[in-house]
Amino acid sequence: MEKKEELAKSKPNASWDIWKPFWISLAFALGMLVRVSLDQSDEIPLFKLSKHSTPTSSKFSAIKSFVGEEYYQKINTDSMEELAIEDMVDHLDPYSAYFSAKQQNDHLLALQGNHKGIGIEYQVIDDSVYVTRIIPNGPASNSKLKLGDIILEANDSIISGIEKEGLAIHKTLVGEENSILRLKVKSLDGRLAQLDIKRGSYEIPSIDPPIKLAKNILYLKINHFSSKVYGDFMKYLENNLDHTQPTNLIIDVRDNPGGILQEVTKMLSQLITDKGVLLVYTDGENQQKNEYTSTGKAFFNLGKIAVLINQNSASASEVLAGSLQDHDRAVIVGNNSFGKGLVQTDREFEDGSAVKLTISKYYLPSGRCIQRPLNEKEKSENAKSKKEFFTAKGRKMTEGEGIQPDIRLVDAKNDSLQNLIFEINKIAFKLARKNKFQYLNQLNWSPILSQNPVILRHFNTKTTETLAETAFIKYCQNNKPSNEILINEPYIKAAIQSFK
Fold first, then answer.
1. Rounded to whole angstroms, how far apart are CA atoms 291 and 313?
2. Count of CA atoms in the C-beta half-sphere (13 A) of 125
3. Most buried residue, 296, 308, 369, 441, by most Cβ within 10 Å?
4. Which residues, including other chains, have CB under 8 Å from residue 243's CB and lie 6 or more apart?
5. pLDDT tens-digit map of 371-394
6. Number of Cβ within a 10 Å radius of residue 122
7. Is pLDDT of 293 > 80?
8. What are the residues facing 391 on neighbouring strands?
9. Which CATH superfamily is 114-203 part of?
10. 15-24, 436-445, 474-483: which has the highest mean pLDDT?
């Protein structure tokens, strides 16, 4: 998908800094009263909250009016108010945040798997912006833009051939829905073209189509836990399991940033068959303890389970891996996960803006918290803690370091999916330059980049590079990942060995 837009941070001019302390202190002291959703998700809930007028304090209003009426220059007091709120929330923790109405709407859409833009993925190789994927049914899919095209200019702004930061490129490509993006592109055979593409909405699947590595082994790559992930999960299991015997399941949540907690707990109820088993709970200073337990309504004949994680597996991904680990239901393969164990909920205001606030922590069934320390004080407290945590079978676990794998891959920290995608794409473009355009054009980028996380891991010898090119061509010819390549990928190989 197009790279996610960073939240814009308002920058006051120097004259406004005089008033900044007043706004911040008042915002802390007075707050704003609106209806709140206490649905325990680790992201913004997917539904619009009921609107409620936001009464303000007479003192807050008086100062706001005083500034607006008496300040020596014309000033937008509403912007000052937003700045105060944003600055206050930003100082709480890394995950609490203030969203404008547009940012809030974009987040809600993203949690449903919907995104805005022209529907492409791109990669910068040697200062050139290559199109590496065109999202099916996205705006670009109806244009003449092709895989491997180099985007030279976007709306008359040069983005290839110069050193330009990724965020700057992203901001050039994104824009308001229904607006026109004019691209100047160069195909791999050197032809130039100008394309006008209308920006719009498109959907990214939360789970890639599964791959059968063997009759009794199914591989699932979960990209994020959107509102549709449980439905997709159930559909793929129903259509791909061998119902005559138990099927071993490999769940890949590498580079998965998280999503909606309820979707994870529903999935866990299919993996842990007994009813009433504690899956995860949340607890906070001002919140009641909230437990999530299994339903006992598992519909599939599943055998052993392995979960693949890395340093970018966060939040809901860690709940999935950690809960299965605590119940000794799955083997965890990879490297320590990210360590995001804080729960957020949001309050939405009448104008559509919202505050996402951390209200509690996640705790796994053993009682351990996956949250890494946010500061030196928390690090010190964790070091002094004498708490011990154990899995269902008595294996000792630690907290405060994310999820620690049962099978650790020594070089896993360097085995990032994004780096591998980069190397895979380099192979694709190299082959295209050798006039093997048919392989590039036949390629379905989603499976090779998401389902086939590794074609090769290192490029230090000619042999491995040749093997990579051969595997890539074979993939394109078959239009599906080579099981031989997948089975020999380090994470998956370790997972399969754990089933024996």
1. 23
2. 19
3. 308
4. 300, 301
5. 988 888 887 777 777 788 999 999
6. 22
7. yes
8. none
9. PDZ domain (2.30.42.10)
10. 474-483
